[in-house]
Amino acid sequence: MIYFPEEVVEHIFSFLPSHSDRNTVSLVCKVWYEIERLSRRAVFVGNCYAVRPERVVRRFPKLCVLTVKGKPHFADFNLVPPDWGGYAAPWIEAAARGCVGLEELRMKRMVVSDESLELLARSFPRFKALVLISCEGFSTEGLADIASHCKLLRELDLQENDVEDRGPRWLSCFPDSCTSLVSLNFACIKGEVDSASLERLVAKSPNLRSLRLNRAVTVDTLSKILMRTPNLEDLGTGNFTNEFQTESYLRLTNALEKCKMLKSLSGFWDASPVCVPFIYPLCHQLTGLNLSYTPTLDYSDLTRMISRCVKLQRLWVLDCISDKGLQVVASSCKDLQELRVFPSDFYVAGYSAVTEEGLVAISSGCPKLSSLLYFCHQMTNDALITIAKNCPNFIRFRLCILEPRKPDAMTNQPLDEGFGAIVRECKGLRRLSISGLLTDKVFMYIGKYAKHLEMLSIAFAGDSDDGMMHVLNGCKNLRKLEIRDSPFGDGALLGNVAKYETMRSLWMSSCNVTLKGCEILASKMPMLNVEIMNELDGSSEMEENPGDFSKVEKLYVYRTTAGTRGDAPNFVKIL
Amino acid sequence: MEATVAYAKAEAENLMATELRLGLPGTADDEQSQTTKATPPSTPRGKKRTATFDAVEDATVAEEANNNKRDVEAAPPVAKAQVVGWPPVRSYRKSCFQQASNKQQSKATKEEAATPVSNTTTSTTAANGSFVKVSMDGAPYLRKVDLRMYKGYRELREALEAMFVSSNNGSANLSEFAVTYEDKDGDLMLVGDVPFEMFASTCKKLRIMKRSEATGLGSARQ
Known about the structure:
The complex is a heterodimer. By secondary structure, chain A is of the alpha/beta class. Helices cover 32% and strands 18% of the residues of chain A. Chain A has 21 helices and 23 strands. In chain A, the strands form two sheets. Chain A has a 21-stranded mixed β-sheet, covered by helices on one side. Chain A has a two-stranded parallel sheet with strand order 5-7. In chain A, strand 11 (264-266), helix 11 and strand 12 (288-290) form a beta-alpha-beta unit. The longest helix of chain A is centred in the middle third of the chain and has 13 residues, at 246-258. Chain A is globular and about 70 Å long. The relative contact order of chain A is 0.06. Chain B is α+β, with helices and mostly antiparallel strands. Helix content of chain B is 24%, strand content 13%. Chain B contains six helices and five strands; from the N terminus they run H-H-H-H-E-E-H-E-E-H-E. Chain B has helices spanning 4-7, 59-66, 69-72, 91-109, 153-164, 196-202, and strands at 131-136, 143-146, 177-183, 188-190, 203-210. A five-stranded mixed β-sheet of chain B has the order 2-1-5-3-4. In chain B, strand 1 and strand 2 form a beta hairpin. The radius of gyration of chain B is 20 Å and the shape is globular. Chain B starts with a helix and ends in a 12-residue tail after the last strand.
């Protein structure tokens, strides 16, 4: 056996690209464990309750980049009650005690308080990047602390957070001298913004490459800002109302023409169709376009813009684009890799102008398509089979037919065969969301073919426990399984309990699992936290039916080394 | 699961977005009991409330509507429930749309530039959800409103007043006018007779006409 000095081994480890590779080498022997942990710069914690923050900080004292995720994915759709948990404070406090070299913090679906943001701002002298996605619990005052104290701040990226508006002061809190800002995204801030502060900030941030404004920023301010940022690569516009002065829009076009590096556009809040032509000069260079917050543009406005975007790789739109519009996309955007079509109507079986035809057109025109999120009002097996043949490169395939359990629109059959084709043809599929009328058969296909599947979302599907069993037994790489309103019960829950230790988490809501089943699971698998949540509607089911066969409304199971969490609210029972 | 029962009917034919709730149309806004099949044998859930369209508005209402989910499949196809968390769209996105419509309403109160934005979209109302044209006798151009953005007649009325009645016209409210609408069958109807939700689902366009012309329609409930 050849022994290398520690520095050499550490250097070799620095080439390992992924967390899982580094995790693997740390298991080889004690020496490698020590070398690895002392040289680890970035840690990814997929479930904040899977491990105690102190333990992470103790093991990796040189931590520079920390990513933590909190609530389960279905929290995005109001399925997780408020106050469930996912608090950032313990993480920030532990890091403040143990890794003062922290440079980047990324959090998703967590509750972050202003106090935590202040602690963050004051504790890490080298802090450079804060990314908060779908978080809540903080206000613009917390942002003021970040702006004031993080002198080296490069990135402040706030994506779709619920931020309490306490005024625009925070924007003026950045240091008076030059800032090192490269990326600033405050699109989710609801309140007013002081234009003068914003212009000053941009003027003293020569490195700015990505800027996403909120709704309050006018075209006038935008055009002034853009005159100072010719190197901008990513822009989220402010509002594009119809109350415009033509001069502002002309100034805007002039400014945009100077932005030769601009590749990605989003925002377009309240955009009136009249404003759209002012963007045309940019279209030919765009690789990313997000028009999904603009219900005021109809399919002809959208297609006139998109047909010019020949280099487009990522497109987010609303279903107002319609099948016809998607055909235009298919013939114009040959490099398309990611497409998201969102509903403009949020009813359970609301109307949508897109159907399977639009997606078939896209699949035949855009063979590089690898990531899809598609809301539509109908689908057919034939279409899915065609799509699977046209685009075998899907990595993410999420299809949401608006009406639960809707069958094939032509044949009235379940959509088992269609999704079966998807998993069979797309051998690299890592994420799948299914919808429409589905029997256990689709799960048989998934278990049989989706060998690289890591995340599966199921809603209103299946006939019996067999369905879920196919998935648990077949999908070797499954990490996250989330199920709602499907007839899977204790038999499925307990059919392969060892599987849950190989996964990050399991979510089941409005299924047929009972309290008894959950208790058995908890007793068999001490390394799992089995959390159950029942509705608190006064007549709590648990109290009225003390028998263990009462159904559990919401179940969240996850592996953990941290034991039971102490911050659970009283509607959460951890078995 | 006998899954096709409730949804096999060609509700796909119904292209207009309808405000969906359990029970028959015309029932009260607040709590209403399940009128159809038996609930699952466990606890009687008591009164159920429908979740309102605006998902961000009331989390607790949404929680109770969660109880309706199991009953959705059993509900008659005519009246479908709103289901918590379905379609799976982030609350952030939903709240952005709500903000969009609020802005549209507040802009409508200001004097606008000559550009008649509301007329640029000539595509069918289907693509635009439930935007309907609003005309007023004597006004030079039409406007558009999204009926889903209003919870009831009072809000709609206020919005229309804000849009059409300005100091130019001299009057402060719509009392000199009758608000009428054209329904699916093409008939001219007086606004206010049927429950708001039913009106919103059948209204094709609105017309604000002088009261003197509206005598044939009987007394207004407004």
